[in-house]
Amino acid sequence: MATLPMGTFINLYPYIVSQDKTLVLDDKYINNLELIFSNQPVVLTGTGLCSSALKWDVDYLTKNMGTEKNVVFLSSNKKFKYCDDHKIQQYMPDYNPPIKRLDLSFKEFIKRLKEWKTGDVRLYLQQALNTNVGEALVADFVNFDWRWLNHQQKINNWGPLTSNLLLVGMEGNITPVHYDEQQNFFSQLIGYKRCLLFSPKHYDKLYPHPVYHPCDRQSKVDFDDPDFNRFPGLDKLEGYETILGPGDVLYIPMYWWHQIESKPDAGYTVSVNFWYKLTYLSRVLNHAIYPDLIFFGNIQKHFSETLQSLLNYLQPLSSGLLMRSYSSAS
């Protein structure tokens, strides 16, 4: 098990978080199949899935990423809470997002990383891998264990691979508790990351933002400083914790809540993930497994869409009434 002892760099949370060793397996071809098929998280060690990328340190990436711009997020603190720009424009135009986006070449990003000092904004590169990278990275990418990945995709009735996201983060960076609507193999390449995982059955105890909010699919709770008066269900929350090191792969099932933290005071981290959409059959199975989460999510989505349609309908109507009133007054 590629892990670090409890307390080496983690906070001691007041809610229940256990290190469940049944979630850590070193046989990628047999033992993990049942867990993955049943949408249970599992840490796979010694898979060799991305062994060709274990040399992707910043020097190697700087040399081979090319000159194209990369997506870099900026945060005034260590939390990188994703925001949907479309929802800001549509529903909350006055909302001030907690992170900002900047497009930088990899060399520019590394320069800022090396010049960073306490008090500066923190940086987190999150770039989809594409054909603009150098030939060496393409060769490494081709040498991933696609045979195993394609096998998992087939037997679990997953849809197409939608993206491979390269993540290069500063020590201590945190992606706060959220869930995704795709299946994810999260492969750790450089450094260590601590992962918290919570089952979808704890949906009501994680206090998600409303579906129309720019931070939809994310928890309102600050897990470093939880407010038990505002969020009383936290004391009944149970979760899992694991530490990922180079070569480890974490399967994060769709709808499982998770928080990812780079080990503080230990240098940068590099990871890559594999996101898969669902087929129709997989969607049906997930509706059967997580009916409450999907039901409430759909209700919120339907309500927000209905409200927006109503506003779209009323806007020209109200404008017409105002014009008629103005004409009458004239």
From TrEMBL:
GO MF terms listed in the record are: [protein]-asparagine 3-dioxygenase activity; ankyrin repeat binding; peptidyl-histidine dioxygenase activity
Against InterPro entries, the record matches this protein to:
Cupin_8 (IPR041667), JmjC_dom (IPR003347), RmlC-like_jellyroll (IPR014710)
GO cellular component terms, semicolon-separated: cytoplasm; nucleus
Q: Which residues form the JmjC domain?
A: 140-293
Q: Which GO terms describe its biological process?
A: negative regulation of Notch signaling pathway
What is the protein's name according to its record?
JmjC domain-containing protein
What organism, scientifically named, is this protein from?
Answer: Meganyctiphanes norvegica (Northern krill)
